[in-house]
Every structure is written in structure tokens, then in C-alpha cells.
């Protein structure tokens, strides 16, 4: 798989204009214009850059990581360094909007360098992109225009700080708008939680727990056709608990039923639930329930 270490080499490969800054590029269609067209197709590639893009009009399919996305509507999406990108000539690249690309080293020595890693949406699949309302779109476009002004003008010692400040503001707005999107899509969130619980039910009932152990979050997300981070963030917004916490609670509920069977030791219960180490099971149970598995058994044992 081809990897591009510099922004210039990445844009050259895409057959896009050279950047005005070695670590930053800004493309903005404005008005009735279109974004410059990249090359028609590409095998899987990676690079060391962040990308923030808003595409208003595009048709065709784009593979982003392991997910294929149909861009029939506009969306704001985010690509992190070393994310896998691939597309073919079925994509029609007549599109409006903007695309900001910057090398990860552009943020070195700034607070944003660490803060940007905490934004979960850089790990989302493209089909989990942010869909903006007209008002939100105008807010984002105004920030991009400020970035473009600094980018196009003769850059001085203040330019980088101003651009990074604007990028920081853009990402904070994106985070706010994602909160709105999670709230507005409660039906989809409820469906995802139902799918999550259904998968765990099926996994436990099939005997895979004893055979393969406790499923990891990436495995569950793959089965539900969503990214690991999006699954966790969606459940967190809806229930206040992450995917890992939901999985742990499911295991604890199963443990409660098995613990009331007097013929099984606490260690046997732990192994049956897929725990490699009974001590870890006991610590987790006590953390969630406030008492140890053996104390729980004594308290609720059947007469």
C-alpha cells in the first residue's frame, strides 16, 4: 500500500494543485464554482495528513477504510492520518464545498495537536459523516473563509496561529453539531442499541463465548457495520455508558444468574463467561455491584 509522508507528495498523487504552504492546503469552491478534480481512481493509499471536507454534490462510491459510501447528499467528514482511502472511476468529482488538508506536523507544539486526537469523529466511517443544517453550513463556511484568507495572503509570523485557532473553532463547532445529530437521530440510536444487545444475545446463546471468549468492541462494531468509535459515542450519548460499559453490564447480568447455581464455583462462573482470569472477573463484579461474587451468592442464594 502506497503511503505519502508529505502533503505535497499526496496532492501531487491526487493530481491537485500544489499547496501554498508545505503543510497546509485549502480548496474552496465558493459560489457556483467547483472543487478541483482529483485523479479518477486509486488503489488503497494512506498519508500523514488530516482532511476536513464538505462535499455538497457528488455521485458515485468512495471506499473509506472498509466502508463504501454513496455521496448523494452533502456531508462534512473527517480523515485522520494513516486512514485508508480508495476510490474508482465510478465517482463523479463535480462537487462544491471545501477541502482542508494539513500535515499532522503542522500542529506540533500547539494545544490542538493533543486536542484533535480526542475528537472521535476522525475515527468515524464516511457513512457516519456530519450532515449540516443550512444555518450550520453557513457557520462552518464563514470559518473556512477566514482560514482561506490567511492561507491565500502573504503569510507572516501570525498566520499559522490564526489558522490553527480557526481550525480549533471549526472542530469545536463540528463537535457541537454532532451532538445535535445524535439527538436528532434517536430512532437510529435506539436501533443501534437494539442491534448491539441482539448481537450479544446471539453470541452468548450460540456458545461462542466459551469457544472464543468475550467479544472485543471492534468485533461487535464490525458485525453492526459501524466504526468502533461511532458505536461507543452513539451509545454514550443515548445511555451515558460506553460500549465497553454496556458489554461489562451484560456480563455481570449473566454472572448473577449463573452465580445462583450452587454447584458452580466463582472461578467456574468466570471461565464460563469468557474471563481468562477469575480474579479480574471478581474485581469487575465488585466494582459494578459493590460486593464480591461470593458475597452476592450468599446474599441472594436460593433457599
Structure notes:
It is a single chain. 48% of the residues lie in helices and 15% in strands. The protein is elongated and about 75 Å long. With 303 residues, it is an alpha+beta fold. A 5-stranded mixed sheet has the order 1-3-8-5-6. Strands 2-9-4-7 form a 4-stranded antiparallel sheet, covered by helices on one side. The chain folds into 2 domains: 183 residues, Regulatory protein AraC (Jelly Rolls); 114 residues, Homeodomain-like (Arc Repressor Mutant, subunit A), CATH 1.10.10. 28% of the residues are buried. The protein is built from 12 helices and 9 strands. A hairpin with a 2-residue loop joins strand 5 and strand 6. It starts with a strand and ends with a helix.
Describe the structure concisely for a colleague.
This protein is an alpha+beta fold and 303 residues long. It has twelve helices and nine strands.
Structural features:
single chain; 303 residues; alpha+beta; Jelly Rolls; Arc Repressor Mutant, subunit A; 2 domains; five-stranded mixed beta sheet; four-stranded antiparallel beta sheet; 12 helices; 9 strands; 48% helix; elongated; Tscrpt_reg_AraC-type_HTH; transcription regulation; DNA-binding
Please provide the count of β strands.
Answer: 9
CATH topology of the largest domain: Jelly Rolls
Tell me, what is the CATH class of the largest domain? Mainly Beta
In CATH, the architecture of the largest domain is: Sandwich
Pfam families: HTH_18 (PF12833)
Protein name: Transcriptional regulator
Keywords: DNA-binding, Transcription, Transcription regulation
GO molecular function, one term: sequence-specific DNA binding
Amino acid at each position: 500500500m502506497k503511503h505519502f509522508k508529505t502533503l505535497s507528495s499526496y496532492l501531487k498523487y491526487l493530481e491537485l494543485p500544489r499547496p501554498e504552504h508545505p503543510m497546509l492546503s485549502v480548496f474552496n469552491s465558493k459560489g457556483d464554482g467547483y472543487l478541483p478534480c482529483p485523479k479518477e481512481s486509486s488503489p488503497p493509499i494512506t498519508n500523514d495528513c488530516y482532511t476536513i471536507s464538505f462535499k455538497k454534490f457528488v455521485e458515485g462510491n468512495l471506499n473509506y477504510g472498509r466502508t463504501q459510501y454513496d455521496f448523494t447528499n452533502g456531508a462534512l467528514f473527517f480523515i485522520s492520518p494513516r486512514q485508508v482511502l480508495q476510490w474508482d472511476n465510478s465517482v463523479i468529482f463535480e462537487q462544491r464545498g471545501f477541502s482542508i488538508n494539513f500535515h499532522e506536523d503542522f500542529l506540533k507544539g500547539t494545544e490542538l495537536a493533543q486536542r484533535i486526537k480526542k475528537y472521535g469523529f476522525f475515527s468515524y466511517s464516511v457513512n457516519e459523516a456530519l450532515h449540516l443544517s443550512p444555518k450550520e453550513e453557513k457557520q462552518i463556511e464563514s470559518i473556512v473563509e477566514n482560514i482561506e484568507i490567511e492561507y491565500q495572503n502573504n503569510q507572516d509570523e501570525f498566520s499559522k496561529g490564526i489558522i490553527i485557532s480557526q481550525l480549533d473553532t471549526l472542530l469545536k463547532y463540528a463537535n457541537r453539531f454532532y451532538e445535535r445529530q445524535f439527538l436528532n437521530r434517536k430512532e437510529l440510536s435506539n436501533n443501534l442499541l437494539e442491534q448491539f444487545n441482539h448481537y450479544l444475545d446471539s453470541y452468548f446463546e450460540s456458545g461462542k463465548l466459551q469457544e472464543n471468549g468475550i467479544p472485543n468492541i471492534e468485533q461487535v462494531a464490525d458485525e453492526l457495520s459501524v466504526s468502533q468509535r461511532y458505536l461507543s459515542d452513539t451509545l454514550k450519548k443515548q445511555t451515558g455508558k460506553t460500549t465497553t460499559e454496556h458489554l461489562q453490564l451484560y456480563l455481570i447480568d449473566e454472572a448473577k444468574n449463573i452465580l445462583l447455581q450452587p454447584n458452580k464455583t466463582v472461578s467456574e462462573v468466570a471461565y464460563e463467561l469468557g474471563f481468562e482470569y477469575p480474579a479480574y472477573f471478581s474485581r469487575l463484579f465488585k466494582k459494578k455491584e459493590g460486593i464480591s461474587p461470593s458475597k452476592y451468592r450468599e446474599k441472594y442464594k436460593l433457599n
